[in-house]
Amino acid sequence: MRWRAVYPSIFALLTLVCALVLLFSSIAWSNNQGNVGLFEVHFSMGLKGYQFSYNCKDGEICPIDDHSETQGYDSDMCRWDFCGPCKQATQRMQAAIETCLGFIGLYIIIAVIRGKLRNKGGFAGKLSGVATSAVVLLMISCTWVLWISKCANHFNGMTYLIGHVRVVNVKPQLHYGFVVATLASITAFLAVLVEICKRDFGPGSGGGSPPSAQGINYQPLAV
User: Fold this and answer.
1) Distance CA 38, CA 17 (A)
2) What is the CA 156 to chain-centroid distance, rounded?
3) What is the full per-residue pLDDT of the chain (223 aa) written as tens digits?
4) For site-directed labelling of 48, which of 25, 86, 89, 137 has its Cα 20 to 30 A away?
């Protein structure tokens, strides 16, 4: 299948799916789990907040009860050093994803209009397709950049208490949400590439099909 036959680009639709998953699910962007003494400990950080829990291992008798907490970064109960930075970062990330969704919708509208036009929109259509795809790429790439630079770097040296035991040097690692955002950036880049490489949207190109020869009567030349 030639690239120009894809209206809209399948890569833009894949980016749309990834953006919806990131915005409307509680998928973790960073995660850490392991064993500390008699307990299994789990950290999970996402756009909407964090979850922290420790549970007694199966078959063990623990001196304290299991504990679990789930809070948003803007909650007064958020007691970690990363709460403030992650609150600001995730607000910007959600705004970037919402902007990304808006421009994907605009791109689809433009793609449908171009598909209905005989000359496929000409140079203006091509420019619009490239511009909207480029904005999507920029917005979705900003999300994982913000996560690394403004939020994830505050996970170093985290400490927490299990009973009266202080556990240090906890560092959640990049997880599924970050992977989805990275994949969305790749598909958004491919969508831009598809738009640039389409050959039937250049300046002055008609893009229409050549007239059919059916029904034309040819007369022999007189000698």
Assistant:
1) 41
2) 25
3) 444 545 568 999 999 999 999 999 999 999 988 888 888 888 899 999 999 898 998 888 888 888 888 999 999 888 888 899 999 999 999 999 999 999 999 998 888 887 777 555 677 878 888 999 999 999 999 999 999 999 998 887 677 777 777 776 677 899 999 999 999 999 999 999 988 887 654 444 444 444 444 444 545 555 4
4) 137
Q: How far apart are CA 2 and CA 157, in angstroms?
A: 52
Nearest partner of 208 among 124, 107, 114, judged by Cα: 114
Calculate the dihedral angle through the C-alpha atoms of 135, 138, 140, 143, rounding to the nearest 10 degrees. -140
Give long-range contacts, CB 8 A cutoff, 24+ apart: 110-119.
Answer: 111/7, 111/8, 111/9, 111/12, 112/7, 112/8, 114/7, 114/201, 115/7, 118/206, 118/207, 118/208, 119/205, 119/206, 119/207, 119/208
